[in-house]
Amino acid sequence: MDNRDVAEAYWGRAPTGGPRPVVDVANLGPPPRTLERPVLDYIRKATRSSTWLWGTLAILFGAGDLNVLWAMPFSLGLLLRLLLVPLAFAGVAVYTGTRVRKRRAALRRVLTSGQVLPAEVQSIRAVQIRGRYGRVVRVRYHVQLLVESRSIELVSYHSGLSLLQVGLVEPVVWLPELPDVIVPTYLLVS
User: Cα dist. 59→3, 66, 76, 105 in Å?
Assistant: First the structure.
């Protein structure tokens, strides 16, 4: 095998010069498809939630405030001030829970009904999120993909996106009804 053949295969071109057919790396099959364990794991990892944290804080602060209320004489103003923080935590828990539920539903819909299409990587940007003393805590990847002449941005913390290069043609799962939700198929097998 010639180096040129290897390079053309890597960059998504057939030896004849045209685009190569899309390879379904994750063996998803045609839609409608059932979601198996690796795909469900991807959905869970891609939509992590802090709902449990906010709910726990609401319970702890509410329990602590009730202990204060039992020890003090009843006052409506005191009750409202003490319950403000637990109610705020409960509100944030509900908000994050509904947001994550909608995102998971969109991912499930795309993965069950979407088509496997080729997508060209237009640009990739890694944003480092730093913690104490300038240490890198997480890296957020912004990948601009071209799917059927549409430019779509994929934002994720998945470290597998660091393997992409500009100009690379990758198979993705995409549904035209949900144009902002796109899943590279190689992330489903890792």
Answer: 62, 10, 20, 28
